[in-house]
Amino acid sequence: MSLGRSLLITAGFVGAFALGAWARPHIDTIDMHRVVAQKNAADSPSTTAAEPRAAEARRIAETTPKARVERAPVSPMSPELHERLQPLLRKGTKMAIAAEGFKSGEQFATLAHASRNLDINFMVLKDRVVTQRKSLVAAIRELKPEANALREAELARAAAKEDVSGIE
What we know:
Layout: H1 3-43, H2 50-63, H3 79-85, H4 95-99, H5 105-118, H6 122-131, H7 136-143, H8 149-165
Helix pairs in contact: 2-8, 5-8, 7-8
């Protein structure tokens, strides 16, 4: 190996180290801001535009009869469910692919409503809940830390129950 090549490799390593040393404080600052934002969102009750949606979810839950006749769960592959959920997903979404992996139509509808309400990519949310087996609340907290995850999950579940209730 020639002296020039050795110097060039050494200079490359020194440059990479210097770049890492320079970038580290900036990365730590970004992470710190994210952690502080998550802590603030968890500590203080949110009074955002989600309030009307939460009131709507409570109204739906209160007007839903408590003693219902148990029906067979709606399949996530149900064409009627696909028709109801298509407007919630992005144009061109293949409903058969979107519905894969869900245990019930209600779970599929819940994620579709949560995705739409919070402007989260449906497939990313689906990956967190179906593939990584996280709860919907945990997935929302991860993807949208500034949102009130529990309230949004309840709202999405109430809307999903309403969607599924009309399907036999």
